[in-house]
């Protein structure tokens, strides 16, 4: 049995030889723990909760020692510190060659998964998709390959926290307990937090629209897959296309595979019904916006529900109004959330760009309602510079 607790108050023939880090060398957990390893916040093969997998086929255990260690070489990279480990593999801070200026986040596929053709093909598709989707607020895959049976992909390394961590620590702070300073947003007063968080989600929605324009559905939009830079004015990155689908290639059966994180999935996807994947992503961004601004969940607490029944229950559950969870939330933000999370897909914003525009239009009104004065900070849209061309990466991961 499982419980979803409402936290409102608070094809290679041979697998790679990976070597996980010793406990004494473990790096402090970072945003990339959630961001790059799908299994850290939901496995790509089954429906999942934030705490991990609830329905998936477990790969066979690795038959031999598979530890990665600091300073070990993986292809052209030298490992520095492990950032996270999950169901799909490990993520390391690494440098290319001996050049300290080429610091990357290196995702390495789990040894047990690389012997499964389906999982290996998915890893390669994720790398290829990430290589061609370059744009503001997206972490592009800048390198990918295989070395001695070790499959990897590299992305720019960003000093950031996930939105998931920010929300969690603000819940802790609201309970009156000491919160970890994972990001400046954690300690911010409520009024500026509403505005800064809404501005960040508008940028994430712009990035999602860029993905859609390139005919890719994200299919796993949630706080754990949004990165916030720790330096003002908080660069924002939408991450992890591990569950993504190419809209022009995927079959209708593939689109209804049920993979994702249930608490953020649209009703039509939860029921595995025919769905407009763009509008489903808009819904997921709306749920993320709800949780970010209210620190609560869209639905009341759901307890003791067996996994097979969870999707159907969530699909039919009555969502809460944002101001019922947080009465201090500005009205203009509630209106945006309600439209983005409409049960009827036709009642939602028609694109992620429309959602972003609605949030941007609401910002001045929210500032007036909250009594904030002075000019807002200038937005910063960053595209980390790759050290290899996307064309080279696409050719290598095929």
UniProtKB/TrEMBL annotation:
Region (Disordered): which ranges? Answer: 1-25, 367-398
**Which GO MF terms does the UniProt record name?**
protein serine/threonine kinase activity
Boundaries of each Protein kinase domain copy?
77-363
Query: Is Nucleus one of the keywords?
Result: no
- Which top EC class is named for this enzyme in its record? transferase
Q: Which Pfam families match?
A: Pkinase
Question: Which keywords belong to this entry?
Answer: ATP-binding, Kinase, Nucleotide-binding, Transferase
- The yes or no answer to whether the keyword Cell wall biogenesis/degradation is present is no
* Bias-annotated ranges (Basic and acidic residues): 389-398
Q: Which PANTHER family match?
A: MITOGEN-ACTIVATED PROTEIN KINASE KINASE KINASE 20-RELATED, SERINE_THREONINE-PROTEIN KINASE NEKL-3
What's the protein here called? Serine/threonine-protein kinase
